[in-house]
Amino acid sequence: MNKPTDKSGFFAALEDSPSADTFLRGLWKDNPVFVQVLGMCPVLAVTNTSMNALAMGLATAFVLLMSNVLVSSLRHFIPKQVRIASYILIIATFVTITDYAIMAISVELHKSLGAFISLIVVNCLILSRAEAFASKNTVGQSMLDALGMGVGFTFALLCLGVVREVLGSGSVFGFGLFPDGFQNWIVMILPAGGFFTLAIWLLLFNILKQKRATT
Amino acid sequence: MKEESLWYIFINASLINNFVLAYFLGICPFLGVSGKLETATKMGGAVTFVMLISSVCAYGINAFLIAVGAPFLQLISFIVVIASTVQLVEMFVRKMSPALFRALGIFLPLITTNCAILGLALFQTQKGYGMVESLVYALGAGAGFTLALVLIAGLRERLEFAEVPGVVKGTALTLLIAGILSLSFMGFAGLGG
């Protein structure tokens, strides 16, 4: 929970900005994982292989897009007092759809992601975009925002997933990378590896930010 | 699944598959309110309480939904139950201890979006636990969550006085500690087996 960056992201979302900026913001400047540190549970839990990370990222992006569109188009009809509950219900509906869709596409994938697909409901990222952006902006803007954030989230998940799979299993998307002599770093695919990898990515981002601040 | 003893379920949920350190559930409050030992303990208590109630409700709802033949409503009903329970706890805490209410701040309503609670409801359904087993599972998960939170809060209080480079401060440092804690919790893997 990085208070200042959180706030700047929130205020930035309030400002009217051109469409391209709305889209790009989620990708880099306000990246949901590296800058806002939102939605940590799936980031750490399902990134032990690149494939899982990609699937999770796409599923989250889909839910984000659909719920942002719906929230934004209903923004004049939802009473202020029950808005959070309504958002959660909207999100839960789309997550259920996603859950059944993934089961239909690949049972194997559904098994390896397990309960974490259902847990997209409680991904703070989606609720925070609904509350901070979609409920105050037009449908088109919200769609762009959701796309940017979704792609940014998927990108971050892939960053973790690829690093963990390369080091932990010596492969990328299931294709072997190294000759037989490579000793897998088992720790990277274990829970602890998730914490370490994310910590190191955050460190890199901090160093970049500091460098930019000094120059 | 049915032959698991209650003791094993408890140990499994609290230590072997600790919700925070092995399943990564409830990371947000874990990073957010783990700065002070006292707040962490109380947060753990509140979460455990919500877990217990929502676990029982989830069991009932699941049985009902299966009887009605509408399992696709599972997720939506779970989240509604959890949200109402959190609302209850919030009102209770505000009445009983305003100081605690202020200390927990935004994280109290955010228990609703605490994955640990929804995760618990989903896992117990997946594992096909009965009423008593679900309760024990919830108790174990709550205890594990509190334990992880207290451990990390204790470590972070110590680190306040340590000199660390500026770049590492904040979330990155907490994550590194969590990683090491998670490693040490793997030592419990053989327990209760």
Rough shape of chain A? Answer: globular
Using the CA coordinates, give the radius of gyration of chain B. Answer: 17 Å
The overall pLDDT of chain A, averaged over residues, is 81
For the biggest sheet of chain B, the summary is: none
Cα gyration radius of chain A (Å):
18 Å
Number of strands of chain A: 2
Number of helices of chain B: 8
The main sheet of chain A comes to: 2 strands, antiparallel
Query: Quick one: which chains have the greatest interface?
Result: A-B, 41 and 41 residues
Beta fraction of chain A: under 5%
What number of domains of chain B?
1
Outline the secondary-structure elements.
The complex is a heterodimer of chains A (215) and B (193).
Chain A: H1 3-14, H2 19-27, H3 40-45, H4 50-73, H5 83-105, H6 107-113, H7 124-134, H8 139-169, E1 171-172, E2 175-176, H9 186-189, H10 191-214
Antiparallel strand pairs in A: 1-2
Chain B: H1 6-16, H2 27-32, H3 37-68, H4 74-96, H5 98-104, H6 115-127, H7 131-159, H8 171-185
Helix pairs in contact in B: 1-7, 3-4, 3-6, 3-7, 4-5, 4-6, 7-8
Keywords (chain B): Cell membrane, Electron transport, Membrane, Translocase, Transmembrane, Transmembrane helix, Transport
EC number (chain B): 7.-.-.-
Main location (chain B): membrane
